[in-house]
Amino acid sequence: MAGLMDRLARALPRRWRKDAALVPVVRLSGTIGAVMPLRPGLSLAGVAKLLDRAFGMKNANAVAVVVNSPGGSPVQSRLIYQRIRQLAGEKKLPVLVFVEDVAASGGYMIACAGDEIICDPSSILGSIGVVGASFGFQDLLRKIGVERRVYTAGDHKVTLDPFLPENPDDVARLKAIQRQIHATFIELVKRSRGARLAGSDDTLFSGEYWGGETAVSLGLADRIGDLRSVLRARYGEQVQTPVIAPATGLLANLVGRKSGAGAAGFHDSLAGLPGGVISALEERAIWAKFGL
Question: Residue 128's closest CA among 79, 185, 174, 83?
């Protein structure tokens, strides 16, 4: 009877067998936050179900999160970080984060949700800072003979309007908010990485970013490696690594959301729309900052 049970157990798919290690994989790739309605970035709403499925998988030994993001919304970055840590605590599962091309700014914030951060020697990590950018068009309006008219209730309702001259008081208020967000980011990194951080605050939290080897030496990452090699070395050659992806269908295919990680959709149809062009250029600029 025991021999029959062993043969039946071996006939089951490995993910259902208790003797085979199982590490579900979730990929989080793209800029973070809403780029525009038809080109969504990473958000908690977009990845929550994927994370629930990964952490809810029966007999899982750990969860692997693959991060490839240059950053974006600090709020969505922190919400995703928190959800990963909440699920890890509830399910008592270790989280291994694997950085691909880049985990910078909000992307690095998400990476900090890992109990370990593993990266490639050529990965880019860091950029622990806050940035805001805009344009100034007041001279252009004057040149083409356009008069800007703004009506408000509230002294500060119009702040840093790109069609009006820059107001130093508005800049000061913006910088104060940025410092608050930066302090929250720093606290999160310190809490997550703890004694592993090896650089000074002035270095680590200056907004600078580094390659993988340097990031490891600074304690921003734990080791160099790749998902397949690390998981096989840790959990055995037969470890199963199912990728948790969103359901696909006709609507998902049309919109181009097959990856569940903020994949760009409707590129061609948006090319002629001013908002789409500006959004695409901004997204491209975020990646280009890191040479990608």
Answer: 185
